[in-house]
Amino acid sequence: MDGGSPRELTPEAMPIFREGVYLVLSRWSALQMAVENEWGGRDSHRKADQLASDIISWFTQSREPLYIDDLENMLDEALLSLNTEAEDGSIEEIAYKLMTMHEECLEGNFQSIEGLREASRQEVAVNHVRQVVNDDDDDSDSDNDVVGNENSSNMILDAPDSSSNLNLVEMPVDDSGPKVASETDGWVQVSRRRNRGK
Length: 198
Known about the structure:
Elements: H1 13-26, H2 29-36, H3 44-61, H4 68-81, H5 90-106, H6 111-138, H7 143-148, H8 150-156
Helix pairs in contact: 1-3, 1-5, 1-6, 2-3, 3-4, 4-5, 6-8
Protein name: Pre-rRNA-processing protein TSR2 homolog
Keywords: rRNA processing
Organism: Juglans regia (English walnut)
């Protein structure tokens, strides 16, 4: 995986690889926290997008051998531009995932990217169910419908007092912090789990 002459991705593989880079970066906690909290200033989101573009260019336009150390340096510098340091080994882990994913795409193997897509879809679906449950709790007469709904009933079990079915008692699904959904006109951010306590 380290070194060697770079090979080119096929036209079919290129957009899939690009998607994979964004999926990997979207699951990197250190980067996402830095962007969400704007630790790198108001243009933190732009810096993260630039990192994704730089990574894609590095893999696809480099005429030199690709070394994982160079990729780790790029990731580290991007975090530093966001006033963030990762001492949890995540830089090495992300670099390894990206290198592996690139190798797989060169071979026409997109399984790891499909796995990332599926994990992302499942997270969005779970958070959507949580949103629906919170919305239904706010609709005073719909508590019985939520409890009876097979897909939503598991989410009710997370509530601190799931035995109570009173319309006057709010049953938050997210027991890790304040009730976000009731305070934001029914809209919650579903793509990231770290803000659940916000």
